[in-house]
Write a structure and sequence with these properties.
Number of strands: 6
Mean pLDDT: 95
Helix content: under 10%
Length: 108
């Protein structure tokens, strides 16, 4: 998985994660949040020699900073490449693009 802050064609990734072990370690980073909620939508897939997809996501993270409850919202797009093996769809590659972030006080 490659993580970007702008379009992959015009920028370099800010992080590159390879293999299950690196992905598992990266997902542990979500433990810093008290709550997370990811709303995925607007998914489109093109079937062909390279089966690709684009998925849009709004990620919401609640955490406390200086004693205040904070909401961090991120608009994310995933550019995915898939393969089908043994009747299962698997990820070959994922490019995660963070389009924008909004950090603000949150009410309980």
């Amino acid at each position: 998985m490659e993580i970007y802050r702008s379009e992959p064609d015009t920028s370099k990734p800010i992080f590159v994660l390879k293999g299950r072990k690196e992905l598992e370690e990266a997902f542990k980073g979500l433990e810093k949040y008290n709550m997370t909620f990811h709303l995925n939508g607007q998914n489109s897939i093109k079937f062909g020699a390279d089966t690709t997809g684009i998925v849009q996501c709004l990620a919401h993270h609640i955490f406390f900073e200086d004693g205040k409850r904070i909401l961090l919202t991120e608009a994310i797009r995933y550019y995915d490449t898939y393969t089908r093996q043994n009747n299962q769809w698997l990820f070959v590659k994922r490019k995660l693009i963070i389009d924008w972030e909004d950090k603000r006080l949150s009410t309980p």
